[in-house]
Amino acid sequence: QVQLVESGGGLVQPGGSLRLSCAASGFIIxxxxxxxxxxxxxxxxxxxxxxxxxxxxxNYADSVKGRFTISRDNAxxxxxxxxxxxxxxxxxxxxxxxxxxxxxGTQVTVSS
Length: 112
Prior knowledge:
Blueprint: E1 3-7, E2 10-12, E3 18-25, E4 34-39, E5 46-51, E6 58-60, E7 68-73, E8 78-83, E9 92-98, E10 101-102, E11 106-110
Parallel strand pairs: 2-11
Antiparallel strand pairs: 1-3, 3-8, 4-5, 4-9, 5-6, 7-8, 9-10, 9-11
């Protein structure tokens, strides 16, 4: 049974940093292309970043490029999203994704 569990969200001031984690079970993440998405209040869910299988190539939405880094620890079967220079417009629920599988999300709030 596939399970994705996000953690690491919280309240942070503009310019601050957070690292989100997504603990995966039921599959091996090193063999999977995995993504982070986010959904702000009143908006549609949007793609944030992707890491490809095996080669670990990465790609980012223009809105987060240069500030966010997606990575994974294969030994821990865990996906990460390092978020730096956070802005109020980054406020959203963040979800990790593999195919049709989604976690429950973790809330990130950027506010002074």
